[in-house]
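Page header: ASSEMBLY MODEL / three components / 1104 residues total.
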Amino acid sequence: MFEPRIVCFLCKWCTSAGADLAGTSRLQYMPNGVNIRFMCSSRVDPEHILWAFHEGADGVLVGGCHPGDCHYKDGNYKTQARMSLLNRLLKDFGIDTRRLRLEWISAAEGMKFANIMNDFTEEMRSIGPLEISPGEVAR
Amino acid sequence: MTKVAYYPGCAMNDRASHLDRSARDAAVKLGFELDELDKWTCCGAVPPVSEERVMNLIAPSRILKSVRDSGRDTLITICDFCYNTLKRTNFSVKSDIITRKRVNAFLADDEPERDYIETDDSLWKDYTGEVKVYHYMEYLRDVLGYEKITDNLKRPLNGLNIAPYYGCVMLRPLNEIQLDNPENPSIIENFIISLGAEPVKYSYRTECCGSYLSISNPAASTRLCYRILTSARNSGADAIVVSCPLCFYNLDSRQQAIDEAYPDFKALPIFYFSQLLSVALGVEYSRQGFEKHYADVSPVLDKIGGISGKGDAK
Amino acid sequence: MKRIGVFVCHCGNNIAGTVDVKRVAREAREMRGVTFALDYIYMCSEPGQALVREKIKEENLDAVIIAACSPTLHESTFRTAASEAGLNPWQCEIANIREQCSWVHSDREKATAKAIKIVGTIVEKTRLNESLEPIPVSITRKALVIGGGIAGIQASLDIADSGHKVILVEKEPSIGGHMAQLSETFPTLDCSQCILTPKMVAVGKHPNIELMTYSEIEQVSGYVGNFTVRIKRKAPFVDWSACTGCGICMEKCPSKIPSLFDRELATHGAIYVPFPQAVPNKPVIEKDSCIYFNTGKCRLCEKVCEIGAINFEQEDTFVEEEVGAIITATGFETLPVNDLDEYGAGEVPDVIDGLAFERLLSASGPTVGEIKRPSDGMIPREIVFVQCSGSRDPERYKPYCSKICCMYTTKHALLYKHRVQDGQPYIFYIDIRTGGKGYEEFYHNAQEEEGIIYLRGKVAKIFRDGKKTIVWGTDTLTGRNIEIAADLVVLATAVIPMYSTAELVKKLRIQTGPNGFLSEAHPKLRPVESINSGFYIAGAAQGPKDIPETVAQASGAACKVISLFSRNHLEQDPAIAWVDEELCGGCRICISVCPYDAREFDEENGTATVNEALCEGCGSCVAACACGATQQRNLSDSQIKSMVTASLGGE
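Prediction written out in full:
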């Protein structure tokens, strides 16, 4: 069975804490993602996401705080704007925009994190592996 | 002479025909013409009191659409109720896409058959609230400007103390009508000042007169009118000016019932804004229909210094 | 070549139960840069930490990675252990293979594979980590308190008592704020002036407090620990050092201006002291109302002043001060009665607000404590109190509850009834909110013992009718409309932020919320700090509140300041942004993106710079930088990219 590979960029204050809560709650979800922790989701550069696709990721999850709750005031708003623009770029590259997922997950939402991981993994499994030649992806 | 599309409303053709006439006369003096719509129907006057969401909008939308179809984007009315109905219809159609679609689906029944080679499809375009609805008083304030009135006064109403009465539907609901502050308005006061008269401050100018209770509970309406009229008189008013034929009818003809119920009551003449306006602009008294009034207007006319109106004076 | 050591924790069975920790250690040993790896049962234990220290020395390690539980738990523990062995703390990283791996997966094969990838990403990060030093920021141990009401007074006293210097700036001629206007305070009915005045005097006398009244903040620059403040000291046209406070000038002044302190129920001259217990008790001349300043004539005060303290030539002066922390305690105002269209829009003389009624109650007020109505001085026998005038009204006025009105209205009705025993008070209310200590009992007593009629309903309209003021309201509990012909109406108007706050926060660059009140850093856990370092907030400026809460917040803010001042210097996390000047093209995108104004532009160099004291390390500017000139220490783009590659199982 095809096992999708997912990279998760999580913000330290909310999403990563939410993922930790999923752990302390012993919620089970599929192991297809590896988490990379940033201080804020606004650290995520579209370049990182494109690199992830280049290196073989089938899906990328970007997790930040709920609007209004960003530890750094408005970082998540910037993230949202960047992801919206990146979506358009992905369409141009012929990459299914479902492969990039932006979620607001608070430190209290362990269940939400687990559900999203399961949901996202299944979704990636259903649309199959990402097939692009590395040369197409902007460096 | 600018022609502006004009919606008279039902009262204007019958009981209140003199009000319609005075509005037209005044317009001519001010350099524009009230161009009555070719075909028009009752507007329903329903939205203020109805819970129905779509049916009550059909008749007024049809009126508005016909104005648009005739190539015009402005409609004047001289009745508060028509104004309220038409303006709120515009608001509903503009702000809610589902209402707009449903209303236009009904209106489509009226449209002529569309010929497939017809290139100009403006008649079949949905009505989306393109027509701006003006109350005559709003038109005076925003389009003509009060200077136009003051410059053309033939009989300035100096020395007259006139109390404005706003009634309920001219200003409310605020977010749909946006004419003036409903709690502390000034449009009629400014109109009074432009005629050279003195506006009277009294506390009941925005209170209900109970016209809707005329059939079901006339005693309540009598009491409400009594309070309004007495307050105006006690504040020094020579007369009250109104902008809606229903307010006019209620405040004027109900004075007979008030007289019977409250012995201390003293009559107060009621004027329609267009009557005062055309009198001030020099139109003859005989065209104003003062004889239809219940409360005797002669004291006021005497003050203005003209011939006393023949009236049904008590 | 960096020598990295990897320590894989079993965490008892928590990790080892699902993840093959021995295999993880073996695979880690093969990773690029790793020279040593082991697994151990409990890394966070004393022996575990000793192991780390030992191996750093033995294996000559430059960096260590602990693959264990979440960094939120033990990152600082291991960093301390590493630094004890001589390693820079930032060369110690944690790989989370418990909360984010062993605890959430059950398939041993897949969990182990994932744990290896997780360790791989941290290895890649660590390979390029620099040794960092925390950034020291010096602190000026002087505080600025803006606002001289009870909040500012309390905060100033607390900080001054701890031995630090305070500058207290107040825009009115005297400190005291609204509390000085009150007659008695609920629920104890303490005389407000009696409990406030000793504190005011203490402020005036305190050797550590420099009191600047009749002054305003002009400009603030700098950052936490290092603010420069420019203060405008308005000219009072009286030499305060010479003035003895005899008061003759005030008696003789022919001008009459409405007294703001007395809520315009009385007048005073153009030269005035706002109230008898003012601190400092020195008069000021209000230029706009002074006959001399307007027409060139008069100068009567100058003539009668035996000391010659009047000086019309005075000018506003400016002072610059260096401070380390700023407390904003600018207090509140109440919604003007003129704004309430339904309640007469300010044109009915016998409709007043709560603070005006306080002045009527006050023994030192315009009616010497007798309740007389403004229009004709008659003692009102029918008095109506309208709660929620402008509060809890999202459509027309303020959506929030003003918190204090239920209590002070009950207090007003009670005090009225004590003085006008044949009078009838009515209170129109929506709810009665009595959350503080003793409040419910106070209200209960008023309701039962004092014959106050409480009517649950809103007031629709208030207007004048002859000598009476008509109130149209409703009583929802009986379902009837109520009309009262009142002699006096008191509106409990909404609490709003003091008008000057809006301008001030622009100068301070701190946040306010949707209703203009100052924003706290966290609504639950950080109520007296702004999110901006070095700025603290206290009192009604943060939201409507009563005196006990205000005093508590003031002391809380003072405590934060004292805590700041007790450190030798501030330490800023060094994992912040930095600029490679060679690459920077001067586009300034980074500057526009920073939420902390930590990015500046060096005009001479033509490049962007980072203010290390202000940068919080969020990384927004790093992502925004188009050319990669701005990078984040120990989380650079190249680190991230290699981490991504490692997370996908690549090299």
